[in-house]
């Protein structure tokens, strides 16, 4: 606009003044016009688009706006982080609470259940929250299905692990234990056990609830949801046996369940609004025991003459007194019949053509019936056929009972020859007719398993058992496993027998958690003052001999794993133990005793080895059931069901 005005003024000045005419206020003044023109020409007119006045204010305001935005963003982020941190803290607390619940369940499952008599680790006594009997142990078999002497699941085996599948008057497969946040012990049902937490009251971590609202800390059997055996039954219990290619197994008609039952523990941790749910599967520390015989020794056996050693595989339920099965002879199965009339006798062993017997005199020839003093068994036929008792011409005594004949037979009951007494037919030494049963018969015949037999004795040295006149039985397959195994090149350490890689691994997993230790020995006599049950680890090498006496509680009902690094003295009659006993030093049994499972004695240099007159019986069942029964529980799998 102004440049156009300037050009218009210049044009008028040129035209008018050039003609000497320019009117301004009634007077012509070219000079003034020229001056005005020059001033207009030299005037500086500001460009509004190039005016920078006030820019600092604008820029300052912009920076203030940016700072305000950054500040509000920082406040927002800080608040969000605080909220996230708070949520993380509560969620972590809920997760930790759930873990604490898992830990209580595993701890109580692993307590040695002595009915609440002794404090842990020797027992299960914890006096808290009105706990019934002060017994904090959780028993997976509260109905005694594994010890009632019955075949509860109908698979033909008595007190085997699959009896837990009992489904009759009640369904034992639905067993569960619920740990509650209470200070009282609720009444149990047949299959549901209620127990208060062992947390001190008033400050519990919330990993359970006071009522059955679905948040209780629960322990139950793992069920066959995947139908492992394909039978369509998903309600049966799953077991775990680490020695199998597929450790998870169930009981079937063809293959009984082995190992230990898998348990599922469900724990819900809560704090504020955060809830964390964990589920773990646990099983008792599985050990795969390698036992080579009833007795394993790292020496030339020095065993007592009255000892009996049998490597035949016995049922784990065998107890002292089972050898008194009466008639038929005790080396026969209790279902066999025919003694003494010889009509249907079937031997329980020595049908495998193996040498099953290593002690005693003339073990394969026995006199079944003998004549009275001063008489003789005459008219031997020299054949397996005895005279016909119903034919007077063949039997002048005319007796109808075979027991009045005289006969010699071998241990397989094959007649060598027979006849009858040559004088007074009514006079027979009938008190000797059971001689076969009383002298060289194998006790506990009614408790023999059909397979899995081992030698009676296994040693790294040569064995001369006959010279001691001891009874040693065993053997399985002809030409392979007989009654003894001698001259073995390597003595097995305990960790090797239990399947661990080293002694340290064994200590960490098992021995460190022993419920019976040297602390349970009397300081002056060395006597064990608690029951010999569970994991018994007596590190007494170079110290006091471990003594088990008549005053030791439950000395006649020992079981589990007993490891003695020094000497062991069984100073009472009637001692019984089922499982594995491993002694680094010497073993002295004063009188009778019964070991079922395996006894391993390394023996001290120059020591006596094994003395006394115990019965030592191999039993795979006892090793599996009672040794594993003493183990702690370990986690097989872990499942985090998330946080709400």
- Cα distance spanning the termini: 75 Å
Shape: elongated
Tell me how many strands there are: 29
By secondary-structure content and strand pairing, the structural class works out as alpha/beta
Q: What is the helix fraction of residues, given as a range?
A: 10-25%
Task: Profile the largest sheet.
Answer: 10 strands, parallel
Number of helices: 7
Strand percentage:
15-25%
Uncertain segments:
21-28, 325-351, 360-374, 379-405, 407-418, 420-440
Number of domains: 4
Computed CA radius of gyration, to the nearest angstrom? 47 Å
Mean pLDDT: 77
What tags apply to this protein structure?
17% helix; six-stranded mixed sheet; 644 residues; elongated; 4 domains; ten-stranded parallel sheet; single chain; alpha/beta
Task: Summarize this entry quickly.
By secondary structure, this protein is an alpha/beta fold.
Q: What do these coordinates show?
A:
This protein is of the alpha/beta class. The chain has 4 domains: 2-45, no CATH class; 98-288 and 632-643, no CATH class; 295-306 and 456-466 and 490-629, no CATH class; 365-439, no CATH class. The protein has helices spanning 2-18, 30-42, 55-110, 435-439, 494-497, 503-509, 620-629, and strands spanning 23-24, 27-28, 176-180, 192-196, 217-221, 239-240, 248-249, 260-261, 263-271, 274-284, 295-297, 308-310, 365-369, 377-378, 406-410, 415-421, 457-459, 471-473, 484-485, 533-538, 546-548, 558-564, 568-570, 575-583, 587-589, 593-601, 610-611, 615-618, 633-643. Strands 11, 12, 17, 18, 19, 20, 22, 24, 26 and 28 form a 10-stranded parallel β-sheet that branches. The chain has a 6-stranded mixed β-sheet with strand order 4-3-5-9-10-29. The longest helix has 56 residues, at 55-110.
């Amino acid at each position: 606009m102004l440049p156009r005005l300037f050009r218009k003024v210049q044009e008028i000045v040129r035209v008018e003044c050039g003609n000497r005419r320019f009117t301004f206020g009634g007077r012509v003044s070219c000079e003034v016009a020229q001056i005005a023109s020059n001033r207009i020409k030299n005037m500086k007119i500001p460009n509004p688009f190039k005016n920078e006045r006030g820019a600092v204010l604008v820029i300052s305001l912009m920076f203030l706006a940016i700072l305000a935005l950054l500040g509000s963003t920082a406040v927002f982020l800080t608040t969000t982080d605080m909220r996230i941190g708070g949520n993380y803290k509560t969620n972590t607390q809920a997760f930790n609470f759930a873990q604490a619940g898992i830990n209580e369940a595993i701890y109580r499952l692993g307590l040695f259940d002595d009915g609440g008599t002794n404090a842990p680790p020797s027992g299960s006594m914890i006096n808290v929250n009105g706990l019934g009997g002060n017994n904090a142990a959780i028993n997976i078999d509260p109905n005694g299905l594994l010890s009632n002497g019955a075949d509860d699941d109908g698979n033909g085996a008595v007190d085997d692990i699959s009896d837990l599948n009992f489904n009759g008057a009640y369904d034992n497969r639905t067993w569960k234990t619920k740990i509650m946040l209470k200070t009282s012990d609720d009444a149990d049902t047949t299959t549901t056990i209620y127990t208060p937490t062992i947390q001190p009251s008033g400050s519990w971590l919330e990993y359970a609830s006071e009522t059955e609202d679905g948040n209780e800390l629960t322990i139950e059997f793992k069920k066959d949801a995947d139908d492992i055996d394909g039978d369509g039954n998903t309600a049966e219990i799953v077991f775990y046996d680490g020695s199998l290619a597929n450790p998870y197994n169930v009981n079937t008609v063809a293959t009984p369940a082995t190992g230990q039952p898998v348990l599922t523990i469900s724990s819900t941790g809560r704090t504020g609004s955060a809830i964390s749910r964990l589920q773990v599967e646990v099983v008792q520390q599985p050990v795969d025991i390698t036992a080579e015989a009833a007795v394993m020794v790292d020496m030339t056996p020095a065993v007592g003459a009255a000892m009996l050693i049998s490597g035949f595989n016995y049922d784990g339920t065998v107890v002292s007194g089972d050898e008194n099965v009466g008639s038929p002879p005790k080396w026969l199965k209790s279902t066999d019949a025919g003694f003494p009339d010889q009509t249907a006798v079937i031997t329980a062993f020595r049908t495998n053509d193996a040498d099953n017997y290593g002690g005693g005199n003339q073990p394969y020839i026995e006199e079944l019936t003998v004549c009275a003093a001063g008489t003789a068994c005459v008219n031997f036929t020299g054949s397996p056929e005895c005279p016909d008792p119903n034919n007077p011409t063949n039997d002048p005594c005319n007796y109808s009972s075979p027991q009045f004949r005289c006969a010699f037979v071998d241990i397989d009951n094959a007649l060598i020859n027979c006849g009858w007494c040559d004088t007074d037919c009514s006079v027979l030494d009938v008190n000797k007719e059971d001689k076969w049963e009383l002298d060289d018969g194998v006790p506990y015949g009614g408790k023999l398993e059909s397979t899995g037999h081992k030698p009676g004795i296994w040693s790294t040295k040569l064995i001369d058992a006959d010279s001691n006149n001891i009874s040693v039985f065993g053997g399985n397959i002809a030409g392979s496993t007989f009654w003894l195994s001698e001259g073995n090149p390597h003595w097995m350490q305990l960790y090797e027998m239990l399947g661990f890689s080293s002694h340290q691994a064994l200590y960490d997993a098992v021995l460190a958690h022993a419920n019976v230790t040297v602390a349970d020995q009397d300081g002056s006599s060395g006597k064990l003052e608690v029951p010999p049950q569970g994991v018994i680890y007596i590190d007494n090498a170079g110290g006091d001999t471990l003594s088990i006496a008549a005053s030791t509680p439950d000395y006649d009902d020992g079981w589990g794993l007993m490891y003695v690094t020094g000497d062991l003295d069984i100073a009472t009659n009637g001692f019984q133990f089922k499982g594995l006993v491993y002694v680094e030093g010497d073993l002295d049994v004063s009188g009778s005793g019964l070991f079922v499972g395996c006894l391993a004695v390394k023996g001290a240099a120059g020591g006596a080895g094994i003395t006394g007159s115990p019965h030592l019986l191999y039993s795979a069942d006892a090793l599996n059931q009672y040794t594993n029964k003493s183990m702690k529980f370990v986690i097989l799998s872990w499942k985090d069901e998330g946080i709400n």
